[in-house]
């Protein structure tokens, strides 16, 4: 199943990509990872190594998330377009969804992104035909970060 993709927003990318990637690198380093790659190559944001295992990590900022995770948000949504990363990097892929101020982050294992969780989502800036993996937030891990 393939949906429609939101048009690339360079201004949002320029504002959030580097800070999110830096926060992700700091998070991984604090957990004993060695960063192998973090330069832009249209793959994952960061490749790291810990205990002889490579990990592939993708960072995103959820701009609307501004304080504690709202109880009414039952799901974390990952765009279907990230399927290409699942196809390429497999079981050691993780998605890191940062709060707007980078003080909290959800870690979502790529194993949770399954075809049966693909659905449309509604929102102000969402193409009505775009598909997202809908992940129950209780299946993800929330971390508080010092900032």
List the helices and strands and how they pair.
Blueprint: H1 10-30, E1 34-37, E2 46-50, E3 53-62, E4 75-79, H2 83-89, E5 93-99, E6 104-109, E7 118-120, E8 131-136, E9 141-144
Parallel strand pairs: 3-5
Antiparallel strand pairs: 1-2, 2-3, 4-8, 5-6, 6-9, 7-8
Describe the structure in your own words.
With 147 residues, the protein is an alpha+beta fold. It has a single domain (10-144), classed as 3-Layer(aba) Sandwich (Trna Endonuclease, Chain: A, domain 1). The chain contains 2 helices and 9 strands, in the order H-E-E-E-E-H-E-E-E-E-E. The protein has helices spanning 10-30, 83-89, and strands spanning 34-37, 46-50, 53-62, 75-79, 93-99, 104-109, 118-120, 131-136, 141-144. The strands form 2 sheets. A 6-stranded mixed sheet has the order 1-2-3-5-6-9. A 3-stranded antiparallel sheet has the order 4-8-7, with no helix packed on it. 26% of the residues are buried.
């Amino acid at each position: 199943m393939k949906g429609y993709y939101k048009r690339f927003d360079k201004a949002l990318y320029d504002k959030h990509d580097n800070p999110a990637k830096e926060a992700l690198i700091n998070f991984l380093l604090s957990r004993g990872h060695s960063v192998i790659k973090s330069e832009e190559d249209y793959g994952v944001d960061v490749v790291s190594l810990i205990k002889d295992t490579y990990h592939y990590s993708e960072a995103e900022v959820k701009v609307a998330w501004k304080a504690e995770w709202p109880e009414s948000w039952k799901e974390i949504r990952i765009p279907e377009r990230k399927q290409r990363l699942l196809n390429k990097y497999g079981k050691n892929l993780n998605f890191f969804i940062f709060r707007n101020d980078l003080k909290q982050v959800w870690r979502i294992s790529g194993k949770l992104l399954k075809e049966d969780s693909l659905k449309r989502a509604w929102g102000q800036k969402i193409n009505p035909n775009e598909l997202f993996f809908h992940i129950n937030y209780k299946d993800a891990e929330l971390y508080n970060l010092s900032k």
